[in-house]
Structure prediction request, 366 residues.
Amino acid sequence: MTLATTATWTEIHRQPEIWESWAPELAARAGEIRRWIAARGIEEVWLSGAGTSAFIGDVLAAGPPPLRPDPLRPDPLRLVPVPTTDIVACPQDVLGASGRILSLQFGRSGDSSESVGLLDLLDAHRPDIDRLHVTCNADGALATRVAPGPGEARALVLPSATHDAGFAMTSSFTTMLLSAAACLGICDAAAALPRLAAGARALLPALASRPAPRPGRAVFLGSGALKGVARESALKVLELTAGRTITQWDSPLGYRHGPKSAVDGATSVYVLLHPDPGTRRYDADVADEIARQFPDIPVTTIGPGGDIAVEGTGDPRLDAALYVLPAQILSARWSQELGLPVDDPFQGRNLTRVVTGVTLYDYVPA
Prediction:
């Protein structure tokens, strides 16, 4: 099977079409959801998911908090990224929170063990918490589970094309992120998604034609919201190469404080240049430093004025959908070069597309 005929490659390349075609419906649905959030008096939003789905929360929460969609209460919404894996393992750290809370959960399948575990916890211990589920599977638990009340539930089911058939989350990640951004008032979907689609259409062919040396290690660095993108980028490479390419992620400034010790002569470094010019100076300095210290390894900058130019909206939370594309392309190409089946690099062993079978234990509050 050639790379171009894999589901993963197809799913990466159809993202612009998905975003653009989804934009009008999303704009309408997001308006309805924002009015519901206002009516429910929401003060705090938990951004939850597992793995890639959790990183959406890391991206969206790393910026100015959006104003609450209530003209009488214009104070910001508190966005709190808290993975389902953390809540299920340590419910005592979270479930005692006070105030009007919205649990905003992301899930490609909507059926992972932790997705169901969080629903069970809320049913049993915090039925007052409202729920918004952003998912790609109309038949999954996140799309079909009914809240017992008094908290209410809403589900935003994305176009079926986002329910990636490949092992790695690609279009599901970017489209869930952009959809949630619209629902939280971070962007106007009707304007932002077509603009991002145009940027992706220009970027994807250029990425596919770039040389892609397969490293022994790959490092992704990003500041602010792009730190979450760096984390997702590192995971994509790790997953699709079945762990044969060891990866790291960090912030550019944080990387100097010990983690940089992992760089060797077989490492490729990718630095995501922040749209903000002030922040971008720090990103560029770290890229230059690593290039001087390791003159024989590739150090690639991604962003405005970078080796891989990304010109998006200027909001890194939205532009995350573009910044992640290089890792999606690279990981698929490296997987193919390693002779792995790109759509299922583990071939059913060790890791599976949907994490299920996790033992969920009853929570007994102290």
Remarks:
- The chain has two domains: 3-193, 210-337.
- The radius of gyration is 20 Å.
